[in-house]
Amino acid sequence: MPGDPRIRASDTDRDRVATLLREHHAAGRLTAEEFHERMDRALEARTLGELDELMDTLEPLATLLLAAQDFG
After folding, report:
1. From CA 11, how far away is CA 61, in angstroms rounded?
2. N or C: which end of the chain has fewer CB within 10 A?
3. Using CA atoms, how far apart are residues 66 and 72, in angstroms rounded to an integer?
4. How many CB atoms lie within 10 A of CB 51?
5. Which DSSP symbol is given to 58?
């Protein structure tokens, strides 16, 4: 998420990250344990920086979707 990592996260920000985590889990990039841990942390996140940390090891889905289209 772009922006100052110290900025307070909104409900919409937390929901956006939760949706992305669900997509990555469904694609097999997160184990069930990792998914549940990150979801708990996402729902408790207070800042954009805390949400960024949850996504830092996952490639942006837009990049992955474009790559998949190249093979389609």
Report:
1. 21
2. C
3. 10
4. 22
5. S
* Cβ(58)–Cβ(24) below 8 Å: yes
Say if residues 18 and 43 touch (Cβ distance below 8 Å): yes
Assign 57 to helix, strand or coil: coil
Per-residue pLDDT of the chain (72 residues; tens, 9 = 90+): 557 899 999 999 999 999 999 999 999 999 999 999 999 999 999 999 999 999 989 987 655 555 555 554
- Global pTM value: 0.80
- Which secondary-structure segment (H or E) carries 32? helix 32-44
For 18, other C-beta atoms within 10 Å of its C-beta total 16
Give the residue extent of every domain in the chain. 11-71
| Residue closest to 54 by CA, chosen among 36, 43, 70, 38 | 38
